[in-house]
Write a sequence for this structure.
């Protein structure tokens, strides 16, 4: 299965962990449609770990937990499909999943068949308990081949957390996305760490196989499986802006049945989603914040070329202090001498700014961001 833009959807893990069941999935499917999330592009509903019985059946097939999913997975898939959504599930390259349920090791082909027979459209494939004797690239290639040959289009979502130099081999496996980070938790430090860790991996992101910075924590506010401290709405907005800007898949992790208006507004910013889904998925670059001064790791300006000649420009303050930032047009290939400049449209407040002296100054509140779509105009 070839997925040309970052996947968008919802995943059960961040909030629900082991506390999943059929009714939760039905209600979440309803909410994805009724709240408008589907119409903004969130199409995959993914059940993560903890969905199966602890043992396979006599013929070696995975069995859905009888209490959590009393009507089986085909019934769940049918319901999800009836709402116009796509259905995702989870397994693992080890003999156990990370939470200790049966993994797909040495059952890759039979499991791919099972997922296909249930109507699965997306498989997240984890890396816990894998054999220390077999390199991950062989394990992911196996499942990649099993999925490509199972008779159904199933998006392969690899989840080896960037371990064992995943970036060097993941594109050989048929995966459409790969977890380029460890697990997110609901704290500001986690957002900051994942963002900075990601920088050296930007060159590996691109059409057909996207760097997955992990599921979103927007709107969790400390509740749920990876809940911990929680973040402020400003921090969630910066988190969403970063993930969207960097072409990460956008998989919602909060309980959308209870999402508040601010959370919904963050998750449905269509201009940011358009940056995320830009068909070229070009590599972002980082420019200097203070020309001639040492680099401040915590204040970042990223720029990306979009299809059609526009630029996306993002200012991100990862620190708890107010910060000034200065974007110099020279670094963008637009010195004053070329007679061109930028008109910047702020995707969060709709205001437009023109750069008239070769430098754009933007002040950032603690943890805040500014994201702009910029046109090249005459000076
Ligand atoms: C790993 C993955 C998480 C989640 C859990 C489930 O930690 O990275 O995203 O799937 O396993 O156990």
């Amino acid at each position: 299965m070839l997925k040309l833009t970052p996947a968008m959807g919802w995943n059960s893990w961040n909030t629900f962990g082991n506390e999943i069941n059929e009714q939760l999935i039905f209600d979440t499917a309803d909410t994805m449609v009724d709240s408008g999330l589907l119409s903004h592009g969130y199409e995959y509903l993914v059940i993560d770990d903890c969905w199966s019985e602890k043992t396979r059946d006599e013929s070696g097939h995975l069995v859905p937990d009888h209490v959590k999913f009393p009507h089986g997975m085909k019934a769940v898939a049918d319901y999800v499909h009836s709402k116009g959504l796509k259905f995702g599930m989870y397994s693992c390259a080890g003999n156990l999943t990370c939470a200790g349920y049966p993994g797909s090791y040495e059952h890759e082909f039979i499991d791919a068949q099972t997922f296909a027979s249930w109507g699965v459209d997306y498989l997240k494939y984890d890396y816990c308990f894998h054999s220390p004797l077999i390199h991950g690239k062989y394990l992911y290639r196996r499942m990649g081949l099993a999925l490509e040959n199972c008779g159904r289009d199933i998006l392969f979502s690899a989840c080896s957390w960037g371990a064992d130099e995943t970036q060097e081999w993941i594109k050989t496996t048929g995966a459409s996305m790969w977890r380029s980070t460890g697990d997110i938790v609901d704290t500001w430090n986690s957002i900051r760490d994942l963002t900075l860790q990601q920088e050296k991996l930007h060159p590996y992101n691109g059409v057909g196989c996207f760097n997955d910075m992990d599921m979103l924590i927007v709107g969790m506010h400390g509740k749920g499986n990876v809940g911990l401290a929680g973040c402020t709405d400003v921090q969630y907005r910066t988190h969403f802006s970063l993930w969207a800007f960097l072409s990460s898949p956008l998989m919602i992790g909060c309980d959308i049945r209870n999402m508040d208006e601010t959370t919904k507004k963050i998750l449905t910013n269509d201009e940011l989603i358009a940056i995320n889904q830009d068909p070229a998925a070009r590599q972002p670059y980082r420019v200097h914040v203070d020309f001639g001064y040492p680099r401040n790791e915590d204040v970042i300006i990223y720029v990306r070329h979009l299809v059609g000649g526009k630029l996306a420009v993002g200012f991100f303050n990862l620190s708890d202090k107010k910060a000034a930032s200065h974007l110099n047009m020279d670094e963008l290939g637009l010195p004053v001498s070329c007679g061109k400049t930028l008109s910047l449209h702020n995707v969060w407040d709709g205001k437009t700014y023109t750069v008239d002296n070769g430098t754009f100054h933007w002040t950032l509140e603690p943890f805040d961001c500014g994201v702009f779509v910029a046109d090249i105009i005459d000076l």
Q: What stands out?
A: The radius of gyration is 21 Å.
